[in-house]
Each structure stands twice: as structure tokens, then as C-alpha cells.
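Entry 14. Two folds queued back to back today. First construct below, sequence then C-alpha cells.
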Amino acid sequence: MRIKLIAADVDGTFFDDDHHYNVARFNQQLDWLHRHQIHFAIASGNQIGHLQDIFAGKSDISTFIAENGCLIRTHGKTIFEAKVPRDTWVKVLDFVTNEYPEASFGLSAAEGSYLRQDDPMLNDPQTKYFYGNLHVVKDLRDFQEGVYKLNMRWDGVDTKQIAQEINAHFPDVKATPSGFGAIDIIPANINKGLGLSKLEEHWHLTAAEIMAFGDNLNDRQMLQRAKYGYVMKNGVARFPHDHFEVTRFDNNHEGVLDTIDEKIIKA
């Protein structure tokens, strides 16, 4: 096994359920990876500002596949981005607000995140955690640009079924459950697997040189793209028809770090 890039999802994968990770252990690993010219990337549905904030002052991570692949940045340089055009996201927003008025709806753009001032989850702790550079507005439709992502969140619903309904109505976008009662809506041809392919091009790698970790449905294409795709032990039930490798331990017991040690550093 000759790995040159490791990519990991964050919540439910790299982080435990309390949004923590073993900083000391990972930094030792990261130093070893750097010395052996192996790249490490975070691949998440979250926005770039949030991802940079949660690792700032802790670990020297400089490569991010953000917004489920809509924005890819390494060492401060954007190497790829894709947006949902305004006319498209407004139509999607009109549909979902009519069909699911009880849900929280947000926009993720280059300038930050946007929520309505009457959004039901505006003061929710998860909102404060996940939404970086938050702008509270009267009407989301006042935003005049394309966006990386629309996000829906609410409790106690079948997000998989609702995502399927959105996809049936709007072929130009892709709605995917992303965990924590959320659905991410992004351009139809964008996903974390495409994000990996852009890093392959940038660093002249092949999929055979990539290891990836994920726990949810928005990780599927990334795990398929990488030759060594690992689903977390805590996420196996979400992939009943896939045949990914499975980590020995779940996200609460450092499953990603354990696999890096076992398969790369100590191999």
C-alpha cells in the first residue's frame, strides 16, 4: 500500500460525538505524514470558515474539501469551486419552504452563512457551532448570488425520503442526508468524490494512492473513488449495499487514527 493522500470526513468520522478528537495523537501522525510526503485533507459538507476554525491552533491542516466538494482549497489557494445558480436555488427554496415549513433553511456562500431572522433553529447550539460568519436576514431571497449549498435541518424526520423527493423535482441539484437531521443541497454533479479527483489532478495522484474515511451518505462517492475507502464502524448501517472496508473502532474510539496507525504508519 503506497498512500499519498488521506481524506476524512469530520463529524461522525474524525470527531467523536462531542466534536472532539485526540489532538496530540493526530499531530504526531500528521508530522509523520508530512515527513513522508503524504497529504491529509478534511472532506466535509461544512463551510470552509467553520472547518478552518475548528482546527485553528490545534492541527496544521491546510487542505479542505468543503461544502461536499463545492469548494476545494489547499494552502490558502482555491483550486475548484461550483455554485448553485440563484434562479435554481430560489426555485428549490420556494419548494422546500412550502412543503416543509417547519424546517430550518440556510444558505452557504463565499461570504458566510445566511439564515432567516425567524428561522426555528436560529438559537440552537448546533446552529452556532456549524454556521460560521452567520448573517441573519429577513428574507433569504434578498441574496443575489449563487451559493455553494442550501441546507435543511430539523428533528425527527426521514431525511433520506425527503432528499429523494427534492431530487425528483429538481434534476439540476443533488440533495443528500448529511447527518444530525440535515440535508445538503448542492449542484447535481458535485460530491466529495469529485473533490478527491480535483486533488488528484492538482497533485498528480491516482485513486490507487488515496485512503478515505466517512460515515454518512454524502461520503459514498468519496469512499468509492478512493481505492482504500473506509466506512466508520458507527456508519455501516447506512451502506447496506456497499462493500467498503470498515474501521475496527467507531468515531468515539479514534477509528480513523487507529486505521492510519495500523495500515500506514506501523505497516
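Second construct, same run, same settings:
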Amino acid sequence: MNTSGSIVVGTDGSPPAQAAVRWAAIEAQSRGTALTILNAYDNTWAATPGLPRRDLADAADLAEAIVTDARAAVGTMLFNVTVHTVIAPGDPAAVLIERGADADLLVVGHRGRGGFTSLMLGSVSQRVSTHARCPTVVVRGRTSAADGPVLVGADSSSGGALALDAGFEAARLRHAPLLALHAYTEPVPLATPGLPPIPPPHTEGLAKFHASQVNDLLASRRSQYPDVRVQVQVAAGTAAGPLVGASHHAQLVVVGSHGHGALTGTLLGSVGHQLLHHADCPVLIARG
């Protein structure tokens, strides 16, 4: 099935996956796009060591029941969304990445049935959010959050630009304000042997400088989205801590797949990883 232009959500029927389906359905309705509910079932389960041999058809039947139940759940809450269901054998993460390659958005829960309950992020969710080729949402924390701002990690990197674009559009769809949060590194005092160290710029002045830089980044988008109320916040240090803290009062946090400080060649920056483990609301990884 062609999923281009649609939202694809993966489900295994677990409570986190059910929350992901609900979130994706609401997002599909707000965007006016179709929703594809997908279950990928393990085609090796028929010969799992130590377990009774099972027919692969049983796995397909279970997968069909899971997506049918998910579709019925969407039907009880929404009426204007076209819903498709898909089941496919294979590794769940690999199938989701492949089937969602051309989607507008790929959505997963933060854990599935196979995850250890002590883990904050399941292996499938981590692989999908890291390797997906389209924008990806991991539904976690306050999964039904509908109040508060759309929170965006703002910087001048290419990933930061994608995050700002996605954040403004998300704020427009939700009629929500946008909070652009930028973290900066404080300079280390210069020291010359035999001379007193040169103090760094005044902290308040440095914060104002970075706030001005962020406002410059936002200028064209503010013109494009005049109805979106924007607030800028700057913080010294790394971005992960302030973003996680602000996520407790946000309905969505948006970051780029890379920002300043990400190692070349990495697929997802450290800030994104921290948010996927600790954010208190759904996390959108913006990609081009």
C-alpha cells in the first residue's frame, strides 16, 4: 500500500501503542490526511526455541485482530478520518521504517509488548526514531496533552531549521503558542600566564545576545504564521535539561534529527535521545 501523504502509526495492541494510535488519529484529523494503522508481526515466532510450535497463520490472525481493534477504537472517537489497516511479516522496526518512508509522519508508542517495563524507551521505538526517513513522533509522557505550547529546540543548524518549520506548523494546527528554547555555551574565561584572567561577557548581556539571534531565526516564520504567538527562552548549558523540564508544560516537543554539537555521521543527536527517554509529552523528530 502506498502511504505517501498519510500518517502511519505502528501498533502491537499494547497500552503505549493504543495511546500512539489515538494521538495519530487526532493528528490525522487536524491535518485532513489519511491514517494507516500497521502491525508488523515476527515471522520467526513459529519456531521460537523453548516454546510450543505455532502456525504462522496464527500470527497473521493476531495481527489482523490488533489492527481491526485499533481501527474500531478510532471509529468511536473520530468520523472524518480515512483509516487503512496493514499487516506485514517481518522485523517490526524494519517494516515500519520501510512502509513509512514516504509518509508525512510516522508515529510509534514509547514501548511495546516486548519491552522491559523498566526501560523508558523500547528497542523498536528507538530504532524507528533513529533510522526513519520521514518525520517521526514517539508518543510518551502525557500522551493526551492538549494544553500548553508547542516546544521547539531552536538553533541555526539545518536540523534546527526543520524543527522550527515543523514546530510552527504544529502550533498553527493546534491553535497553540510556540515556545522556542535555545541553549548556548558560556565562554570560558581567557587566562594568560602572569596576568589576571579576562572575565567572560556579562551573563545577562550574553543571554540577550542569544535571544536576539533566535528572534532573527524566527522573523520569517513569524511573518508566515502571524496567528502563532511566540515566546523565546534562552538557557546556558546543554539543551536537553531545559527542554525536558519545559516538556512538563508543553503538548508537543519538536527537535531536529541533528543540532549544533551532534557528531557528524550520527543519526540522531544526544538532545533527541534524551527527550525520547525523558520528555513528559510526545516528541517529534523533524526531518526533511
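Quick look at the second one. The chain has two domains: 7-139, 150-286. The longest strand covers residues 35-41.
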